[in-house]
Amino acid sequence: MESQRQYPQQFSFEFFPPKTEQGAEKLVAVRDQLGTLNPKYFSVTYGAGGSTQQGTMDTILSIKQAGYDAAPHLTCVGSTRDTVSELLQTYMDNDINHIVALRGDMPSGMRDMGDFRYANELVEFIRGETGDHFHIEVAAYPEFHPQANNALVDLQNFKRKIEAGANSAITQYFFNLDAYFRFIEDCESLGIDVPIVPGIMPITNYTQLARFSDMCGAEIPRWIRRRLESFGDDKESIVAFGLEIMSDLCLQLLESGAPGLHFYTMNQSGPTMAIWNNLDL
Ligand code: FAD
Q1: What is the pLDDT of residues 203-213, one digit of tens each?
Q2: Is residue 2 included in any domain, yes or no?
Q3: Which atom in ligand 1 lies closest to the alpha carbon of residue 16?
Q4: Average pLDDT over residues 61-90
Q5: Assigned domain for 3 exists
Q6: Domain contains 261
Q7: 130 burial class (0-12, 13-18, 19+ CB within 10 angstroms)?
Q8: Domain of residue 251, residue span
């Protein structure tokens, strides 16, 4: 973990584009509450396959207009060279200089991947088109990507994204600290030297968390699962236990030299603020 200590710790918050006007209004309030914590940037997810792409742009511009740094996510799925060029130009025209480049997952029923197969190809294209304008983030998987044939190949694929020009990475969320520490060590031994910021998922709803985790390959350790299950519909206990677990995880990460935290806020300020308040930042 020593290599990660050289980077200043930075904090960021992720949103998804709201689907309704009411959701958009609520997000403005959430953003301004979290804005008081002085984040480095807010990022906004991008619906692979097109479902929320205008929403991403609208949310990003609204964040930027409110005076915060904004980082749009962008996926290979559903993108062509032309659509990406156009998007990049719009972002540049609006003084956006930070981007999260991803492959995305093909929605069921969609056949055409677009012009890019893997995130490293998208990173390479963004660099080729826009030089050093963008700070490019990519995804990292301390417990490995669910489709990777094996751990080493996945690490090598991660390295391709850095070699293509990514500046830093955000991890998939995880609950196993050792997985992150090992991942960082492996990256060091492969000569990867960029900040790898842990992604943090506040725990507020067990059913939803279990479903997400199955899909994205994040393991919920048995002892955490069993405890969460035992609370049944008692939301208050789930939230209290989740807060304790996640605050502990974040504290240990920061003490060990993690270069900051990226919170998957799920468009809510409460759970993220509660963890934050326990960190003494
Ligand atoms: P890649 O890095 O392309 O890797 C995907 C798989 O392909 C891995 O198994 C890898 O080992 C393999 N691979 C990579 N490169 C190669 C290569 N050159 N040759 C052969 N195999 C290769 N999804 C969205 O739809 N929208 C979002 O906004 C979004 N935001 C995210 C933010 C974060 C921080 C994270 C961690 C994930 C996000 N995702 C998002 C989910 C992400 O799109 C999925 O996890 C997706 O399955 C992989 O994306 P990736 O960019 O990591 O893909």
Answers
A1: 999 999 999 99
A2: no
A3: 28
A4: 97
A5: no
A6: yes
A7: middle
A8: 8-279
